[in-house]
């Protein structure tokens, strides 16, 4: 059933058994698992079926400048207020019809408490999630539940024979966007026990006087009306930013925010920064014909892609954090000394390029182009613009290089992350000269990386989110050591040479974000160390759960979507088990 919140009279109370706040992949997976149950479910979404700039403006917030550099992308860029949430933003073109996203499980070590990583350790091990990962594969539209390289390689596409036990190959699979944007959305709209309420924003969780039970959710609309949803069980599936923000805003019974008695709500915000690791130059260019495994390709109807990472064993011995590397062939411009020198200059100055689009030279070039195409400028003004272009040629070159390597649909994301298919080309040994090597890295949980409330308010009168973020020196040092190990073993293999990029001795950070927000309502058995328990229930609140990567104590390097789906399915099983006789019958 579909209902527009803007048509609900102000002051009304909608009654239900389960209220799910947020209809992204987590919320939709939860709702899909609850289809046909004997209890009622309300799925509340701040946006609608289509994108809306006015609604999207509610995602704006503050980002505290980082004196160490590595500025984080604005909060409004990384989130989508629309039914199906961030799945609407997936940009990997799987075929002419579908887009998708990379799937991978977390590694066993990601669930472990690591002595060298404070605040690490989940409430359970990887084995607990195995059956839910298997179900998540189907929910997410992926293939068979296996990420082992031997299940996807063949004689024409073998894994790289890197000696030793430090570097391994494993796989990504790709999930299908339309599972969320079309299939589950439509099933929920047509269901009898689930109501999808659009254009309504949860602005407060109202509790009993002790703050131990959520009694109702206060909902506000941009149209001006406000109402409540009363539910026996409330599940917040709004992502790491909004989940923390909503708990902090819900401060009537608990002045510091709901579930925040030990000041953990909002803390340990994490993402997956992008590192440009370097150039892998094969000793024999025939290698380009033997590395199809590392391209996105279809195997028995499933799209997969190989990656390199360090084994759990070497991570324990060396006390490292997670990192994978992906290979993207490039034309052999490295033979051109001038081109190579220019590239090094651009790369060494990359952190300054983010401001180049605002430089005088770039602005002058844009205005000059507009003048020639649309007119309206005098000869004197044209001459002034030409002078501006001439004085800013350096910035123009930088901006051009950045435009060539960054995906315009996802600012600060390397374009090749979504553009593959090179393995199908003919005569690759003639076309390509080296591989550019990109890495997704783990970020250690740090309580100082956090979401707080800004003094600014949004159009609904709610305080905006404020992000404090930095990348620690210890993380950079551990990533540098991981890169060294990769280079040592690849260079020893005889396959070629991995030339590492470094920025004043540090790994070369290309982007602070892969749009993978994690942490902020972290999982811990000890309420003094986290916000939710092992069942994703908020400590001290009897009927409030969090379903998103907000509960991740650590995030590994893998895209979090598959783990989000697994946790959502696991929580759905718990909801079905605990509702029982407490549910209000649909016949009432």
Structural class by sheet pairing and helices: alpha/beta
Query: What is the 3D form?
Result: globular
Helix content estimate: 25-40%
Number of strands: 25
Average of pLDDT: 88
Number of alpha- plus pi-helical segments: 14
β-strand percent reads 15-25%
Q: What profile does the largest beta sheet have?
A: 10 strands, antiparallel
Head-to-tail CA distance between termini? 17 Å
Radius of gyration: 25 Å
Low-confidence stretches: 348-358, 395-413, 583-588
Description:
With 588 residues, the protein is α/β, with parallel strands linked by helices. It has a domain at 338-403. It has helices at 25-33, 53-56, 126-139, 178-190, 239-249, 312-318, 337-348, 350-353, 360-374, 379-391, 393-405, 428-431, 473-493, 561-579; strands at 2-4, 13-15, 18-21, 41-44, 62-63, 92-93, 99-103, 167-176, 194-198, 201-207, 214-220, 226-230, 233-236, 274-282, 297-299, 302-310, 323-330, 434-441, 450-457, 463-468, 496-500, 502-503, 506-507, 509-511, 544-546. β19 (450-457) and β20 form a beta hairpin. The radius of gyration is 25 Å and the shape is globular.
């Amino acid at each position: 059933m579909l209902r527009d919140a803007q048509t609900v009279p102000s002051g009304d109370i909608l009654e239900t058994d389960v209220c799910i706040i947020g209809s992204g992949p987590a919320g939709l997976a939860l709702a899909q698992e609850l289809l046909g149950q004997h209890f009622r479910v309300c799925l509340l979404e701040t946006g609608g079926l289509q994108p809306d700039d006015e609604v999207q403006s509610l995602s704006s917030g503050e980002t505290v400048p980082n004196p160490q550099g590595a500025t984080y992308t604005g909060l409004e860029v990384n989130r989508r207020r629309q039914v199906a949430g961030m799945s609407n933003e997936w940009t990997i073109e799987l075929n002419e019809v579908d887009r998708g996203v990379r799937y991978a499980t977390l590694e066993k070590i990601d669930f472990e408490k690591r002595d060298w990583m404070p605040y690490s350790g989940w409430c359970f091990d990887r084995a607990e999630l195995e059956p839910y990962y298997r179900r998540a594969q189907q929910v997410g539209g992926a293939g068979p539940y296996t990420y082992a390289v031997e299940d996807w390689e063949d004689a024409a596409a073998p894994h790289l024979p890197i000696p030793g036990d430090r570097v391994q190959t494993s796989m990504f699979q790709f999930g299908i966007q339309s599972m969320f944007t079309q299939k589950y959305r439509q099933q929920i709209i047509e269901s009898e026990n689930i109501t999808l309420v659009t254009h309504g924003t949860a602005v407060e969780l109202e509790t009993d006087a002790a703050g131990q039970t959520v009694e109702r959710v206060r909902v506000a609309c941009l149209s001006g009306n406000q109402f409540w949803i009363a539910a026996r069980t409330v599940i917040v599936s709004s992502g790491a930013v909004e989940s923390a923000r909503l708990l902090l805003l819900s401060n009537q019974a608990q002045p510091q925010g709901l579930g925040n008695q030990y000041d953990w709500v909002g803390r340990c915000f994490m993402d997956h920064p992008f590192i440009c690791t370097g150039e892998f130059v094969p000793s024999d260019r025939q290698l380009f014909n033997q590395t199809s495994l590392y391209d996105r390709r279809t195997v028995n109807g499933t799209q997969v892609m190989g990656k390199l990472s360090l084994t759990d064993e070497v991570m324990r011995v060396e006390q490292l954090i997670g990192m994978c590397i992906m290979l993207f062939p490039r034309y052999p411009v490295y033979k051109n000394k001038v081109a190579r020198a220019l590239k090094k200059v651009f790369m060494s100055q990359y952190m300054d390029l983010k401001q180049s689009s605002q430089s005088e030279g770039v602005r002058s070039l844009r205005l000059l182009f507009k003048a020639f195409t649309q007119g309206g400028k005098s000869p004197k003004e044209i001459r002034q613009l030409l002078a501006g272009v001439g004085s800013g040629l350096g910035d123009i070159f930088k901006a051009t290089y950045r435009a060539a390597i960054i995906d315009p649909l996802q600012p600060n994301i390397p374009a090749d992350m979504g553009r593959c298919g090179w393995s199908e080309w003919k005569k690759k040994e003639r076309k390509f000269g080296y591989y550019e090597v990109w890495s997704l890295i783990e970020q250690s949980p740090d309580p100082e990386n956090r979401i707080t409330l800004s003094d600014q308010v949004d159009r609904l009168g709610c305080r905006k989110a404020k992000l404090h973020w930095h990348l620690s020196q210890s993380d950079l040092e551990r990533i540098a050591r991981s890169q060294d190990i990769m280079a040592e073993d690849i260079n020893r293999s005889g396959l070629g040479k991995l030339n590492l990029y470094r920025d004043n001795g540090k790994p070369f950070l290309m982007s602070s974000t892969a749009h993978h927000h994690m942490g902020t309502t972290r999982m811990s058995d000890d309420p003094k160390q986290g916000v939710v328990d092992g069942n994703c229930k908020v400590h001290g609140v009897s009927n409030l759960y969090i379903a998103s990567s907000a509960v991740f104590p650590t995030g590994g390097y893998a895209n979090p979507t598959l783990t989000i789906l697994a946790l959502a399915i696991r929580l759905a099983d718990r909801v079905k088990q605990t509702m029982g006789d407490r549910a209000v019958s649909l016949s009432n």
